[in-house]
Amino acid sequence: MDDIIGIALLDYQNGRYSEDIKTFSSFDEEDTIPMPYLFRPFMAMPKLEQIALKKCSGKVLDIGCGSGSHSLYLQENGFVVTGLDKSSGAIKVCQQRGLINTVCSPILEYSGSQFDTLLLLMNGIGIAGSLDQLGNLLNHFKSLLKPNGQILLDSSNIIYMFEQDEDGGYWVPDNNNYYGEVVFQMGYKGLKGKSFKWLYLDFDTLQKYANIHGFHCKLVSDGEHFDYLAKLTLTP
């Protein structure tokens, strides 16, 4: 089963909400994704998401759009926005909620149009999966950006999840992998999804990789707990 999120979103959209999505990670932690949170209006969104939506300009591609909450806000405010997600269930929900432009595709397989803003919220840059794949994703973004376009993304530095010593340092396992690489699996109503990799980036690492691949990376705002909003633009 590879569309757990889509099944759950469709259930919620069509009045069949009875439980939330469960997540299991390589940190040996079990958590939940509350379904109502995925359908939140603008005023219930975190500060970083609100700032990002206010900074959108021109034609927008909402990458990993989920239920379409960000895209719908933009559409309602006059933007030409396309919601992209590889989950067919998510795209059906977006359409049912009134989103005009949708694409069901993995981002690396999508091409043929260019945008003024690429939007990746809810740690959307995590779709890179691992640090060694981040460059491929950034290079693909170049083909999707109009001249003078921008990428708006949020992410989190998950260093806080590791044990801290008396000197303020953190004990990070020496396994040759970047500490922000996490493996997840989702569960919903007795179904289990396939495991997938997700990437959490500290800002300094994002900035380093952005610079290597021809982007200027600016910190727009810090969040309340090790999270941040960043803006990437192509280096002249």
TrEMBL record:
EC nos: 2.1.1.-
Gene3D superfamilies referenced in this protein's UniProt entry, alphabetically: Vaccinia Virus protein VP39
Pfam families (UniProt xref): Methyltransf_23
Highest taxon, organism lineage: Bacteria
Gene Ontology MF terms in the entry: methyltransferase activity
Residue ranges of the TM segments: none
Protein name: Class I SAM-dependent methyltransferase
